[in-house]
């Protein structure tokens, strides 16, 4: 494995561990589907059998950034000894703080902004030295620190989540429309809106960035048209988003 494959493996581990922490099992297949590639292609990237695109890691980060705090997994986590509860609690808080800082930096990168530890410390009323003392376990970490950090940056997090939900919906609509065209079936915006459970007007508004998008909508579409798409992960794009999102003339 070269460095880029190791980075991909670590990122996927991070996503899966963070999913487990939230009571979800995130499979390799789900990750592949979320970024619209076949599972076996993702596996080839992991094994170094195929070169991945330059923006591949950032695409995965963008797909999962608003949903979970991701952290690097460097070793297996042992079952804690009850006698070490206090130590493990501090270590858990430290890892959570590290993960939150990593997450906020990633949010900043997505917005083209550099978020430094100094910025993060300042927004929560800390000094940089105090933040580093927490990270280096020189001082007990307040129980509410991670929550305060996330609350401080919540507007940026909400913006990223909205953009990612919109982009996921757009790519899914294009995907389904063109799979339909490939087999001689025209799947309309009305058809897809009905599968989601919203009006045609609302779906058009979402595609034109005029309305919020629920993160479950792309999954509803993928599930509704699973029989049509099957395991195919590529299709000729005959109609792009610009063509699809234009309302037909009355």
Overall, the morphology is globular
Helix content: 55-70%
Arithmetic mean pLDDT: 79
Order of helices and strands: HHHHHHHHHHHHHH
When the domains are counted, the total is: 3
Query: Termini distance?
Result: 57 Å
Counting H and I runs of at least 4 residues, what is the number of helices?
Answer: 14
Secondary structure tally: strands: 0
What is the rounded Rg?
21 Å
Low-confidence stretches: 68-82
Estimate the strand proportion.
under 5%
- Give me the secondary-structure category: mainly alpha
Tell me about the largest β-sheet: none
Q: What is the quaternary state of this protein? A: single chain
Task: Give a topology summary.
Blueprint: H1 3-21, H2 28-34, H3 39-47, H4 56-64, H5 85-110, H6 117-123, H7 128-135, H8 145-152, H9 154-182, H10 189-196, H11 200-207, H12 217-224, H13 226-229, H14 241-244
């Amino acid at each position: 494995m070269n460095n880029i494959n190791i980075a991909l493996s670590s990122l996927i581990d991070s996503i899966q561990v963070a999913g487990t922490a939230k009571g979800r099992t995130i499979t390799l297949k789900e990750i592949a589907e979320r970024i619209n590639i076949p599972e076996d292609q993702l596996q080839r990237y992991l094994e170094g059998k195929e070169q991945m695109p330059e923006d591949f890691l950032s695409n995965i980060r963008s797909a999962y950034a608003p949903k979970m705090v991701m952290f690097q997994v460097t070793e297996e986590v042992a079952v804690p000894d009850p006698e070490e509860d206090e130590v493990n609690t501090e270590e858990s808080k430290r890892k959570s703080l590290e993960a939150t800082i990593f997450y906020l930096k990633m949010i900043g990168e997505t917005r083209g902004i550099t978020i430094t530890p100094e910025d993060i410390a300042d927004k929560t009323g800390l000094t940089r030295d105090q933040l580093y003392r927490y990270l280096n376990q020189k001082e007990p970490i307040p129980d509410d620190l991670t929550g305060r950090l996330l609350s401080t940056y919540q507007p940026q997090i909400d913006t990223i989540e909205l953009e990612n939900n919109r982009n996921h919906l757009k790519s899914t609509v294009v995907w389904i429309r063109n799979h339909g065209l490939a087999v001689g079936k025209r799947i309309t915006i009305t058809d897809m809106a009905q599968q989601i459970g919203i009006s045609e007007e609302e779906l058009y508004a979402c595609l034109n960035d005029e309305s919020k998008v629920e993160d479950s909508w792309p999954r509803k579409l993928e599930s509704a048209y699973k029989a049509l798409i099957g395991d195919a992960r590529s299709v000729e794009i005959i109609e792009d988003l610009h063509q699809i999102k234009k309302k037909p003339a009355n």
